[in-house]
Design goal:
The structure is a homotetramer.
Chain A lengths: L1 E6 L7 H13 L5 E5 L3 H6 L2 E4 L28 H11 L4 E6 L1 H12 L4 E5 L15 H22 L2 E6 L6 H9 L4 E3 L7 H14 L4 E6 L14 E2 L5 E3 L2 H13 L3 E5 L11 H19 L5 E6 L2 E6 H4 L8 H9 L2
Parallel strand pairs in A: 1-2, 1-4, 4-5, 5-12, 6-8, 6-11, 7-8
Antiparallel strand pairs in A: 2-3, 9-10, 12-13
Helix pairs in contact in A: 1-9, 5-6, 6-11, 7-8
């Protein structure tokens, strides 16, 4: 079989583990040919191929990012790019495509599958908001990095009696904020799942500083929203839904400083959250997903996504995972709350 | 309620996160009193109490080990220590016990529960071989440390054209070996789940060094066993089932050196695997288990263990988890094999 | 002897190592009494004492920040705070003071010494711009954190063909920028020591992206300044000389994006640079400085600062180190340039 | 110019940083040709060349080991290998050689220089015992790894009331033991510089466990030796002076266990100390030494070694650095002692 492989959407640690596994398992046991595409769907549209052999994947397991490159571009019917994808699939005589990506890539994969191309997808997103799988590639490393940042600002908060506000990624779901918040011992965690009341946050901090300890860590997911009427706040969104002006972290930090008089500082973690060496968990996840995707493709399966469910890797229909982002469950939100 | 709390068996990272969660959730929402015991069941037998308040758990979240101390001792009927446990429970007017421990502690908890004490257990073991839960406290950090060690010997193996044999923990199951092996890109992983044939190992290494690259990483779980007749090997076990003489890593290393002539070196990771700062995953796991255990105790539940199942924390009957160790599933063993 | 001890200025990793060494060496070999002051000079002014014994310094070696707390406050003649310092020294019957701090604290120490108090200072500043010593406490950890951030954005830069601009600390000298830039393989390093020409930066990046690789890392010290006429740029400075509006990183990032059209992203590292676990180097430096300071005080020496010079710890007169910040030498600036 | 480049002796982190700097600086500013040799002096003898261009050094900065490979082989007059070196230098029309290595490589470099070849050396050794330079490549990373191990066994020591003995590298000098011992808060540090008395060690531990805390960390350099008559101890040395049987760590551990009755465990760090990602310090050191070596060669200098002296990189005559290993100074040994 000739199998196309691409990574789409934002980069993250663990992608190379999945690429390596697809190449090793594909070219090894099955004897397939693996055709990589550069820069995500853009490379499929442009026919920008990068044949992948064992020599291309040497030493990539612990390296972040993606050796194939990636782009935030998805093929659509309207601009002819979907046709270009189909043309490339035919020109390269591909029997199937393996797409590694987040929500946008999975949607595109769904549409391409409907157009008759055999497709197996592998979920990656540091936000962890893909439905149907316990974990997506990249999330675990992001939580590690965010927790490490909380550990770091903790010592400064304590030494200077400050409120440290840390803004982390998470537009539609607060997985990073809640997990790093619990692991880093944050006093307040603001996640998109629960619109927050700035008055209550301020009240809680005042009480804590009076009664217990005069420093605090506040973690804010970039997609956290104030409860209606609680705080004025507007954001300006960019082309891909990213926030281009008006960070909720800035606003929350300013409100706390103004209302409490506490020395309050903001840290916006930003791009470091999606970079660097993947944790063992992300390397293992990428490896298992890569092997499972090749197995699925080899068995003729299509329109599915690899998924971690408990201790097992399973296949779930792409149709079931699209739509609303996976949200942090109440149990986890409560743990963040009660351990504050 | 008055709740006793102890940590038993070998120490590991994440125990303090669980202790902290029990104290915060117990003394906070519920208003319980938490009575810690020093050095595991030994402290219960001796009535060596350490009342735990919020000031005792400050800054312990990222600290490995257990602030309560631990011991490899379990109460038994025969020597009167079980009666001593019951006497202490009565003397301290305890409504329930929360026990954090591995297989031995869980067995003891079972027996104490049968004797009429309300008990909720929290599983910890870096070997991850407790049945009924996806993860036990300490395992995730151990995999991180072992993977880091593999990353380190990798560069030396490559620079010196060597076979590096790394022995990791895992007496009854190869969870650390298999996970670290996949994450660290090991060429051979020997786990208790699959008795190994040293001839095949040697054959594989010879082929690899001729055809691909003249260095290799071999990961050996301390409990790995040769297939009958494949290799002479005897171990001497100590009082708690620990290996006191004759490491399988030494034997495997010697056989490879002798049969291949390759420059072969052994590293026995040992105690560093169970020490140091817990990963965010172990801190979160300990926190969730601690909160869930207090919830269970407060609801009057007994004879159960907290367990991670997929994205949820559940309670499973202690009776169901005792006995045979949880083994690494075939899917994961296969991933380690095909990515070699 | 009764010895006062304080930490002043911004917190950083390694302070606790120095405090621990002062307490161990002071109370041990010499039998002195160590009187800590809370929150830097503020605590001396207010007589806010915290007597320090061996139990206070348990397990603090690997912990960032300062267990004494700190504040950006320095005693002056004008407001009576200098008199308050002298009054406290008399009230507490102190034979000498050990002050751990940066430029501001060292200046204050100088003035207090002139007023007749025996003083030995220990230099700390993550900026490493204290004259007379190869290293100050906190700098080494900051370089590690900044390098780690460069490693992380590196993979994203490469995967997305981006220019990643990273702003690091360094108001008067570019030690963090230059060292992390070299260690992290940055293509451009902008430091206060060499006013930069934005035209040349842009030209260099355009050439690189055409000829070699279409991604780049640009490190900007917060105190970097454009060559006159090269780029419009104004900053607003706060009370302690800190930048409160108009970051040079933002400006440089915007200019590069506008002039090259390359996808350009900014990361401002901020507070994480001064937090977290000290590196072994900072723990050793703090330990050696602490022991040396106690030795100096015990020998009756005053008006000096501990200093690392090559492999030796020496004492240098405070009078010699005040004034202009220590600048990055040309050799190091050149290494950053030629390895771009 | 045509410049040969090799790495000899044991591998360590930071070698690739030096190789990268030699290639960048050599091929860049100067327009030299850089000819790498595989596997140290062995490759020079065999004429096993590996021409190095900018594409060979991409992304190697954070990677441990050496991309050129290395071997513990040194050319000698007696076996004709010295003549083979000279023949290769002529055949490849080399104007000079840059050798990166430890004591053995530096000695060989000296002899090759005497035979008329222009040579500049760069010191590397994780033991840090090369005279004339504050630091050699690889040492700093080794101290970090050893300190991390001490941090890890610390939590287990405390949780289980144990004595943890950790054996680290250092045959002729105790640089790793003393530095990691200070950074990791060890109670006892045994280094080759000071023959130890096991009776005093045991007495100290007994006193500590009675008076202060019932756990301890003991760091032993592999080259530590008992004071005459204090403890029976013999080692068997291999071909390159490495210890092949009878580790001092084992002996010390057994003595402590026997004489004190304390639960005592040994960890031998071994190969992990020389592997993995170089610290920023080792990357910077390798980079500076690489640039300086090319500058020296280009200026026609020969028979020198690059050296770090305080904040400067200097050149020292090879003749001055051979012979006795650089020893840990008394000041540092004393800090380890007084902070115990």
């Amino acid at each position: 079989m000739r199998i196309g492989l691409l990574t789409g959407g934002g980069d993250c640690p663990g992608l190379n583990a999945a690429i390596r596994a697809v190449v090793k398992q594909g070219t090894g046991e099955y004897g397939h040919t693996i055709i990589g595409f550069r820069n995500g769907w853009r490379g499929v549209v442009d026919g920008d191929v990068h044949p992948l052999g064992r020599q291309d994947i040497r030493n990539v397991l612990p390296v972040g990012g993606t050796l194939l490159g990636t782009a935030r571009f998805h093929p659509r019917q309207e601009d002819g790019s979907m046709d270009a994808v189909l043309a490339t699939v035919e020109a390269e005589r591909l029997d199937a495509l393996i797409c590694i990506g987040g929500d946008g890539t999975l949607h595109a994969a769904s549409r391409v599958a409907e157009a008759g191309v055999k497709i197996v997808a592998i979920p990656k997103t540091i936000d962890n908001d893909v439905e149907g799988t316990d974990l997506s590639i990249g999330f675990h490393t992001a939580v590690n990095i965010a927790t490490e940042a909380l550990d770091r600002v903790h010592t400064t908060a304590e030494s200077h009696n400050r409120v440290m506000v840390v803004e982390v990624m998470g537009r539609h779901a607060g997985w990073i904020a809640v997990n790093a918040g619990i692991a880093g011992g944050a006093e307040v965690v603001l996640a998109p799942e629960e619109p927050f009341d700035i008055d209550q946050v301020v009240k809680f901090l005042r009480h804590r500083h009076r009664a217990h300890a005069n420093f605090s860590i506040v973690v804010v997911a970039e997609g956290a929203v104030p409860r209606e009427g609680s705080m004025e706040f507007t954001q300006q969104l960019g082309r891909f839904g990213e926030i281009v002006a008006g960070s909720v972290g800035e606003r929350v930090s300013a409100e706390i400083a103004e209302r409490t008089g506490f020395d309050t500082r903001l840290t916006v973690l930003g791009h470091v959250q999606r970079g660097g060496e993947p944790t063992p968990t992300d390397r293992i996840l990428g490896s298992r997903f890569g092997v499972a995707a090749v197995d699925a493709v080899s068995a003729g399966t299509s329109g599915v996504m690899t998924a971690l469910r408990g201790e097992r890797v399973e296949l779930v229909p792409l149709a079931e995972v699209a739509g609303r982002p996976k949200r942090v469950p109440e149990e986890l939100l409560r743990v963040a709350r009660v351990l504050a």
